[in-house]
C-alpha cells in the first residue's frame, strides 16, 4: 500500500476527500447489486420451499400409486398368546379356526457330569444332527470339557449344533448340545471312541440325556391336522402366514382376514393433507397484499403458475375408465379456497362398497396418481424445471460476484486518479503559496514613496 501525505500545501484532508468521492461513486452501484442479489436469493429460497412442498406431495401420491395398496389385508387373532397371523393381498377374506396342539422345537441333549478340570481322554467324536455329521479329533490340547465345547463350536463343518456348559456345583459340569434346526428328524447324537481305554472317559458322551426332543408343530386349521417343521406356517391358508406361539390342545381360536380399509383411508387422507399443505405454500409464495403492496417472491412466476394449473386440472378432471373416474365421486372435493376436503361418510361407503374401483381411480395405468406423478416429476426431478430455475439463479448470483470484483477494480483506479489529481493540486497550491511569500518579501524590500522624497 502506498504511503500518502495529503494537504501539505493546501491544508486539505486529501485522504478524506478521496474516500468520500470514491464512496459516492461506489454506493449506487453497490446498492443496485445488493438489491439484485437479495432478490435472487429470495427467489432461490422460494423455489427451494416450492420444490420441498411438491416433493412431499409426490411422496403421498406414490403412496397410492401401487395397486397392491388397495389389496391390503388385515389379519387378527382371537388369542395372540397362542398364534398370530399376517397376510398378503392374495389372502381371501374369511374366518378360520386354529387349534395349536404342539409347537415345533429343536433337540437339546445333556451329558453326564464331569469335573471341569478333568482330562477326559483322547480319541475321536462324531456328532450327528439328523442326517448330517462331522468328526472331531480329541487330543491332549482339547480333552477337557471346555476344550470339547470349543472344538464343537469352532468346527467349520458343524451342521448346526451349539455346545455350552452348565454347572450344578463343584465337580459337576455337563456339556449341553442344542440344535439350530427345529422339527422331527433333527435329533442329536454322539459316537465317541477312546484311543486309550475302551469305555473310558470320552465314550461316556455316547449316552446323552434328552432335555428336549426334536418335534414338528401340529396345528388344526378348520379341523384339518397340519404338521410342519417350523412354527411359521405359510402354506396352509392362501396368502396367510401363521405364527404359532404356544400350544394348548384345549383351546381353539379364530383367525380373521379382512380387507384393510383403514390403511387405504389413511393414505387418501395423507394425500389430501399433503395437497392442502402444497396449496398453502403456493398461495404464500404468490400472494399479493393490495393494502401494503407486499408481494410473494414468486408472484406471477410462470413455473409456479404452470405446476399449480396442471395439478388442479388433474384433480378436477376425469381419469381411468372404472366405476369412479373423479375424486368427487368418492367424496373428495375442492372448497372455495382451492383445498381438498373429504366427505368421510361417502369415502367410507365407497371403500366398503368397491375396493377395486378406488384402486382403479388412483393406481391404474391411466389413473390419477400416474398423471400427478408425471407432472410433479417434470418440476422436481434433478433435471426438472425447478432445478433449471435454481441453476439459472445461482449463475446470476455468480455474475453479481464478478460485477463486484469489477467494481472494486474500477474504484481502485478511480481512487488512484483522484489521489493523483489532488496531490498535483496540493503541490501546485504549495508552489503558489511559496511564490506569493517570495513576492511579498520582495515587495517589502522596495523603498517606500515617502523615503524617496526625503532623499531629494
Helix fraction by DSSP (H/I, runs of at least 4): 40-55%
Poorly predicted regions are none
Radius of gyration: 46 Å
Looking at the structure, what is the overall shape? elongated
Structure explained in plain terms:
The chain is α+β, with helices and mostly antiparallel strands and 456 residues long. The chain folds into three domains: 243 residues; 74 residues, no CATH class; 107 residues, Immunoglobulin-like. 44% of the residues lie in helices and 22% in strands. The protein contains nine helices and 17 strands. The chain has a five-stranded antiparallel β-sheet with strand order 1-15-3-11-12, with no helix packed on it. α1 packs antiparallel against α7, α1 runs antiparallel to α8 and α4 packs antiparallel against α7. The longest helix has 61 residues. The mean pLDDT is 88. It comes from Methylophaga lonarensis MPL. It is found in: Secreted; Bacterial flagellum. This is Flagellar hook-associated protein 2. Homopentamer.
Amino acid at each position: 500500500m502506498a504511503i500518502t501525505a495529503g494537504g501539505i500545501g493546501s491544508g486539505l484532508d486529501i485522504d478524506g476527500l478521496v474516500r468520500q468521492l470514491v464512496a459516492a461513486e461506489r454506493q449506487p452501484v453497490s446498492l443496485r447489486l445488493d438489491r439484485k442479489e437479495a432478490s435472487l436469493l429470495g427467489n432461490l429460497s422460494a423455489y427451494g420451499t416450492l420444490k420441498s412442498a411438491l416433493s412431499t406431495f409426490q411422496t403421498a401420491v406414490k403412496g397410492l400409486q401401487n395397486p397392491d395398496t388397495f389389496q391390503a389385508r388385515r389379519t387378527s387373532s382371537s388369542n395372540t398368546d397362542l398364534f398370530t397371523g399376517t397376510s398378503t393381498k392374495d389372502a381371501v377374506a374369511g374366518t378360520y379356526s386354529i387349534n395349536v396342539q404342539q409347537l415345533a422345537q429343536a433337540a437339546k441333549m445333556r451329558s453326564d457330569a464331569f469335573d471341569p478340570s478333568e482330562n477326559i481322554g483322547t480319541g475321536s467324536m462324531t456328532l450327528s444332527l439328523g442326517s448330517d455329521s462331522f468328526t472331531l479329533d480329541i487330543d491332549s490340547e482339547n480333552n477337557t470339557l471346555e476344550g470339547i465345547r470349543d472344538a464343537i463350536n469352532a468346527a467349520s463343518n458343524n451342521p448346526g449344533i451349539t455346545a455350552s456348559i452348565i454347572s450344578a456345583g463343584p465337580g459337576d459340569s455337563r456339556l449341553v448340545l442344542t440344535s439350530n434346526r427345529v422339527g422331527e428328524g433333527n435329533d442329536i447324537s454322539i459316537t465317541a471312541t477312546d484311543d486309550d481305554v475302551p469305555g473310558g472317559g470320552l465314550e461316556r458322551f455316547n449316552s446323552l440325556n434328552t432335555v428336549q426332543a426334536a418335534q414338528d408343530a401340529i396345528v388344526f386349521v378348520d379341523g384339518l391336522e397340519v404338521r410342519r417343521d417350523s412354527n411359521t406356517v405359510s402354506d396352509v391358508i392362501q396368502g396367510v402366514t401363521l405364527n404359532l406361539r404356544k400350544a394348548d390342545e384345549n383351546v381353539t381360536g379364530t383367525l380373521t382376514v379382512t380387507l384393510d380399509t383403514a390403511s387405504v383411508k389413511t393414505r387418501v387422507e395423507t394425500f389430501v393433507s399433503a395437497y392442502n399443505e402444497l396449496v398453502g405454500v403456493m398461495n404464500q409464495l404468490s400472494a399479493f397484499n393490495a393494502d401494503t403492496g407486499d408481494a410473494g417472491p414468486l408472484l406471477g412466476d410462470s413455473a409456479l403458475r404452470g405446476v399449480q394449473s396442471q395439478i388442479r386440472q388433474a384433480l378436477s378432471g376425469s381419469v381411468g375408465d372404472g366405476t369412479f373416474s373423479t375424486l368427487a365421486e368418492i367424496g373428495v372435493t375442492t372448497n372455495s379456497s382451492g383445498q381438498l376436503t373429504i366427505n368421510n361418510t361417502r369415502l367410507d361407503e365407497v371403500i366398503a362398497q368397491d375396493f377395486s374401483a378406488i384402486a382403479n381411480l388412483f393406481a391404474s395405468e391411466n389413473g390419477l396418481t400416474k398423471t400427478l406423478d408425471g407432472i410433479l416429476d417434470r418440476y422436481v426431478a434433478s433435471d426438472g424445471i425447478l432445478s433449471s430455475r435454481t441453476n439459472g439463479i445461482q449463475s446470476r448470483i455468480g455474475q453479481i460476484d464478478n460485477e463486484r470484483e469489477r467494481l472494486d477494480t474500477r474504484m481502485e483506479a478511480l481512487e488512484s486518479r483522484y489521489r493523483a489529481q489532488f496531490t498535483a493540486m496540493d503541490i501546485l497550491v504549495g508552489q503558489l503559496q511559496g511564490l506569493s511569500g517570495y513576492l511579498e518579501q520582495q515587495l517589502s524590500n522596495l523603498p517606500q514613496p515617502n523615503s524617496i522624497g526625503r532623499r531629494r
